[in-house]
Amino acid sequence: MSYFDDLKFDAQGLITAVVVDDATGDVLMVAHMNAEAVQRTVETMVATFWSRSRQTLWVKGEQSGHQQVVHAIRTDCDKDVLLLRVTLRGPGACHKGFRSCFSWQLSDAGDWQLVEEQVFDPQAAYGRQ
Q: In terms of residue numbers, what domain contains 117?
């Protein structure tokens, strides 16, 4: 039986992927994968996702050089979410220049406060922002 037989993709053929740092357990980002992205990730052990906005596959780090080397792929009990345990090759996972996409925290005052510093220049890495 193929691992695909158990996974539950949504109506658009996607499954949510939560990406965590293998060493620290920090959540780095959340993305989506289609069956081809899952297959390529399994084959290469480099995180590959489906871009909903561009409607294409993308290998994390193909433009910035900040690859995610996959150490383990897990799924939840319903098999509708994947957890990728990765090591970053580069300073960050966030396209806005942060180590993690989860760099804002809700304060007691009810506003969002930045709790991390940028670790790279997104303009230099992606040529946009």
A: 3-126
C-alpha span between 51 and 117 (Å, rounded): 26
What is the rounded CA–CA span in Å between residue 37 and residue 17? 11
Q: pTM of the predicted model, to two decimals?
A: 0.90
**How many structural domains comprise the chain?**
1
Q: Enumerate the H helices of 14-126 as residue ranges.
A: 35-44, 122-126
Residue 16, domain CATH: 3.10.20.810
Rounded (5°) CA angle 74-84-121: 170
Instruction: Give the pair of three-digit tokens for residue 16.
Output: 């949510």
Alpha helices in 29-127 (DSSP H): 35-44, 122-126
By the 8 A CB rule, do 84 and 47 touch?
yes
pLDDT digits (tens, 9 = 90+) for 20-32: 999 999 999 999 9
Half-sphere exposure of 123 (CA within 13 A, CB side): 0
